Amino acid sequence: MWRLGRLAFLFLTLLIGFSLNQNPFTNLHHDSSPPPPIPKSVKVEKWQLTLGNKIQTLRKAIPTASRVVLVPDPATFLKAIQQWNLQQRYPILIEDDRYTPLFLNRFQPEEIIRLSSVKQSLPFHLKTAMENAVAAAWESDDQSLQQTWKQLEWEPPGIVITSVNDPAWVAAVALAADRGQPLKFLEGYYGKVNQTLSSRGFKNLTQEIDFIF
Fold first, then answer.
1. Distance CA 98, CA 116 (A)
2. What is the pLDDT of residues 112-152, one digit of tens each?
3. Which of 69, 92, 136, 195 has the highest Cβ tally under 10 A?
4. What's the helix, strand, coil split of the chain in %, to 5?
5. Residue 38 lies inside a defined structural domain of this protein
6. What pTM value is reported for the model?
7. Which of 57, 70, 55, 59 minimizes the C-alpha distance to 12?
8. Domain count, the chain
9. Minimal CA–CA distance to 154: which of 184, 185, 182?
10. Is 35 within the bounds of a domain?
């Protein structure tokens, strides 16, 4: 559980928000204010600048709510994240005794909400539930999410790849929902962390990734 809580802690602090009735990107597209200067000693690639500027646009589009929602388990997390909307985001943490106090001490929220467990098992069709949760954060549904992004003139800065069998799926949902990125799935076993992938395994992995795109 501590690992799951740590993963949630690392990713669930990504906060954005928008409004379909008043597109916050409209004025930001014409914002000519330069980004913060980068020290000359730091080598930055062009794609890093592009991504950084895009995330800066997100941060300008919505204030961060001074609120933290604590949940006891992944099923409750999945329900809670569907309450995100186009007006605000706020951290949702799977509560533990180690990382949650550290985050709360640093974030210093004005409001802490602790949700009781929904006392339900994870949905049988977990993949669909994850995709719907991402769409709900944009006040859309999975079938029309791409159209919603088009209406908002939002171009996703990438994709999020996960697996329903990976305990880090909660972080993947939060990242995709927060940054407006398609949630994709890569199932199959490709070895342990830091394990060298065989040529055959690499070929299979490449084919799966090509299929995603």
1. 19
2. 999 999 998 998 899 999 999 999 999 999 999 999 999 98
3. 92
4. 40, 10, 50
5. no
6. 0.79
7. 70
8. 1
9. 182
10. no
